[in-house]
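Researcher: Sequence of RNA polymerase sigma-70 factor, ECF subfamily follows. Predict its structure.
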Amino acid sequence: MYQSSYPGELCEINDETLLALFQQGNAPAFDELYKRFWGGLYLHACRMLEQEQDAQDVVQEVFTTIYTKAGSIVLTGTLSAYLYTAVRNRVLNVIAHKRTYRQHLDSLQQFISTADHSLLHRITEKEMTARIEKEIALLPAKMREVFELSRKTTLSHKEIATRLQLSQETVKKQISNAIRTLRHKMSHFPLLF
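Model: Prediction complete. Tokens:
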């Protein structure tokens, strides 16, 4: 295993030898490769991407891969060609991912804009009806009975009063109080009343 006695010596070694040294466990050889190539690879990525952060991420990923998988790297050409190709491939992956993301976003936007609003209205109406029924069930017994007769039948106030043996004025007051109570409890459904 090569051990440099002077880190400056690494500056004089060619790229492929530096990679071989790193593959043998020489960590300073990796640092030298990083210094040599990071700037150029970053500029290469920046030319193809819109965001500087994306370019930094791409270059960092390439160096991370080299660091973690150095033992499996077999060069068929120069290290420089290998690195620039790796950056280009990752840039293309980023672009494809962003394009796919935008297509999904556009598709979702189109779906939302053309969605069946009547279905949404029916769902909201169903929820609102269930909530109203729940609140009606919580009214005091006599008030609930008067209110339900006034809303669920075609009986007049006079007919309700006769049926329940109440005065017509009491029926009106019970209905008015029920409506006021329900309005207060259903205030988050402003279009209801």
